[in-house]
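Hi all, posting the design record for the shared folder.

TITLE: backbone redesign
STEP: 1 of 1
STRUCTURE INPUT:
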């Protein structure tokens, strides 16, 4: 049986070398290591009730892939200030991509979304250089990282059809109303689960010439019409990448 391939391709050179999208099996929160050490110390009569045997939790760590942060960043919020500020190691980071490396959304997007008590109004949108090239009719479930070591921030959830929009961007709910937090490059930000029963393999690499050509078409596709044109974009996507 043929195995279909999902490609995560980066439009910025070097990113897939340093911080590739990885299988969820490589996700190792600190608390899991501590729990496993604790499990080893127990006698046989108590091991059967330990959290390390909970399949409901650890099955989540086997499905799909996770998106890492692709640069170091400090994000600062103020108690009586709207929004957030940020700083990176070098100003040239902001010039590596054709879009903002960090962005947010207007009130038209965010004002109706339910919030946790200590969550700021704005979404911290991390725009990654990755694009998804996938077999026809496969969509992807975007989820917050399961059972993380902290909840300073967490990804929103949603479904992406790469034939409509192939961008891999992370919409972070920010749960610190006042203070500064550091996101280190490589930190897991979001889980991606393919919605399919097919056997899949994944590659993560730099975008080739053909893929970059598709990326360069998207600004036009997104702006020439007053009305949604998703079906036409999907048709073009599948035709371009020879999907049957």
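Okay, here is what came back for every position:
SEQUENCE:
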């Amino acid at each position: 049986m043929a195995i279909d391939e999902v490609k995560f391709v980066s439009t910025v050179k070097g990113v897939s070398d340093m911080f590739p999208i990885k299988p969820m099996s490589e996700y190792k929160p600190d608390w899991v290591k501590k729990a496993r050490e604790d499990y080893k110390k127990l006698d046989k009569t108590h091991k059967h009730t330990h959290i390390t045997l909970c399949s409901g939790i650890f099955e989540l760590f086997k499905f799909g892939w996770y998106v890492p942060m692709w640069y170091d960043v400090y994000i600062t919020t103020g108690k009586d200030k709207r929004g957030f500020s940020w700083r990176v190691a070098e100003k040239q980071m902001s010039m590596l991509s054709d879009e903002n490396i960090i962005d947010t959304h207007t009130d038209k997007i965010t004002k109706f979304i339910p919030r946790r008590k200590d969550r700021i109004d704005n979404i911290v949108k991390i725009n990654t250089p990755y694009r998804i090239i996938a077999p026809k009719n496969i969509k992807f479930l975007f989820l917050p990282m399961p059972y993380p070591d902290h909840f300073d921030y967490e990804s929103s959830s949603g479904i992406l059809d790469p034939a409509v929009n192939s961008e891999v961007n992370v919409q972070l709910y920010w749960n610190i109303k006042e203070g500064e937090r550091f996101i280190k490059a490589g930190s897991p930000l979001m889980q991606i689960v393919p919605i399919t029963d097919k056997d899949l393999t994944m590659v993560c690499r730099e975008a080739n010439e053909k893929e970059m050509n598709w990326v360069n078409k998207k600004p036009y596709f997104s702006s020439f019409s007053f009305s949604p044109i998703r079906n036409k974009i999907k048709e073009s996507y599948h035709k371009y990448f020879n999907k049957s």
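COMMENT: The CA atoms of residues 97 and 183 lie 19 Å apart.
Let me know if anyone wants the other runs.
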